[in-house]
Fold:
Amino acid sequence: MADENKIKVTIDGKSVEVDPGTTILDAARQVGGDVVPPAMCYYSSLEGSGGKCRTCLVQVTKGSERDPRPMPKLVPSCSTAVMDGMEVSNKTSDRVLEARKGVVELLLINHPLDCPVCDQAGECHLQDLAFEHGVSQSRYDFKRREFDKVDIGEYIKLHMTRCILCYRCVYTANQLTENREHGVLKRGDAAEIGTFIEKNLKNDFIGNVIDVCPVGALTDKTFRFRSRVWYTKPMDAHRNCEKCSGKSVLWMVGDEVTRVTARKDEYGEVKEFICNDCRFDSKDVSKWTIEGPRKIKRHSVISANHYSKEIPKHTTLLNKA
Structure:
């Protein structure tokens, strides 16, 4: 017997019963598969996130059982609550796909096509979107925004040229740390991420801004240019830590730990954030208890080779470069 408090929503022909107040995006994630809209700014564990990138736009073809009229405009699925009997089209809507194509083109206006040298390659959500919805040529003829690379902390480098202003790093620092020292400066097309009065980002959990960044705007200086992620073996591991859960992923080549990150779910979201001690200062494998290979649920180049391919000799990592 169905729960009377649940409401039914149908997305791309697949139905699911969810709690009242659930957004279309979260309902789609309960269904799983291709019906899940992409999201560049929404992060379920960060309050206030969502509604900025517009990549999750969907078409509501039926408002509810009481009012079956379709919504006249596409709506952001990350901030639109479902109603009983609602019917939604995501990948089955040509209108949605055309709009998503335009959003990707807008996101790539200033974003450089430097995937071959970007540390985020292979893990970049924008790279996936560009592959699925991108166009071969840009219609943008004006000068693109350019910024110098900036060290905004002992371990973090900012490539503002790559930033898509998703605000995730700002929300993370605001909600996870005691003092937020960076934010969005200026307005409109001049807006940029920056630190106030050239302060460095320095607190026990600031390294998490690297994990939440969907592109390569915030990079780990201890891992930069050392290797590609598809040459590494992600291993679940944990350690006794007084500051956090200690549950992490060790990205290894051979017996060497090249970087440490928090564990992400199939939508690239971290549920348990880790401290800087685990992330940057514990790269000795003896400090960790290895649980086993990390199962990469999201489609990616990491899981494509099943960690079985050997590192090419030209790779600098572990050649002591």
